[in-house]
Amino acid sequence: MSSKETDSGHTPTEGARLLEVVQYPHPVLRAKGKPVTEITPEIEQLAKDMLETMYENHGVGLAAQQIGLPLQLTVMDVSIVSPNERPSQMWIDGKEVALEDWMPMTLLNPEIEPLTKEREAVAEACLSLPDISGEVARPPKVKVKADLLNGKKVEFTANGLLARCVQHETDHLHGILIIDRMNAATKASLAGRLKRMRH
Ligand code: ZN
Fold first, then answer.
1. pLDDT confidence of 89, banded at 50, 70, 90?
2. Which residues are identified as catalytic?
3. Which of 24, 72, 137, 147 could form a disulfide with 121 if both were Cys (CB 3.0 to 4.6 A apart)?
């Protein structure tokens, strides 16, 4: 997921490489990711490289499909967006935790459960669909279960930007893009741009 509100003051991380972000309509964006069952040095390096690539492109999240690998792996950092602009909240075992203790975050094999029936429509953008932005309706609060790079499992509740970002990225891991979740009117207004991207 990309955001115009990120600050650009990222210092390059040692040992991290910049990867190329795959653009729509590349077929890998439609591939379902394979579960990551073993945390190898290659997976650790990939997560590092993806974070670097995400920061470089002013993203708040990046999924493995977006760098050409259909894997259940995503990186996020919602703390680079001012909480005054787009606040996020995170709870573990019912207690609110400090976002900065958890960001940046690499999630493997994430699973999402909506915690509200209500859906909130908010504009989203995506690094694989430059110049495309439109409202996507999603539950504002979700429960997330995932594996972490340290081999542990995590279960947390997310609200605000974090909830939106984790849903956007988990969609990528299943080959789903924001254009699939926009209503007909929004999609119709973007049809010309999407067509140009396909040619
Ligand atoms: Zn995206």
1. very high
2. 169
3. 137
Burial class (CB in 10 A: 0-12, 13-18, 19+), 39: middle
pTM score, whole prediction:
0.96
Helix (H, G, I), strand (E, B) or coil at 123: strand
Question: What 3-state DSSP class applies to 148?
Answer: coil
189 with 47: CB under 8 angstroms? no
Mean pLDDT of 7-20: 83
Q: What is the mean pLDDT of the chain?
A: 95
CA of 127 to the centre of ligand 1 (A): 6
Instruction: Please identify which residue in the block is written with the tokens 């979700």.
Output: 142
In terms of Cα–Cα distance, which of 131, 136, 153, 133 is closest to 144?
153
CA of 191 to the centre of ligand 1 (A): 18
Query: Distances from the Cα of 32 to the Cαs of 64, 70, 107, 141, 172, in angstroms?
Result: 10, 6, 16, 24, 8
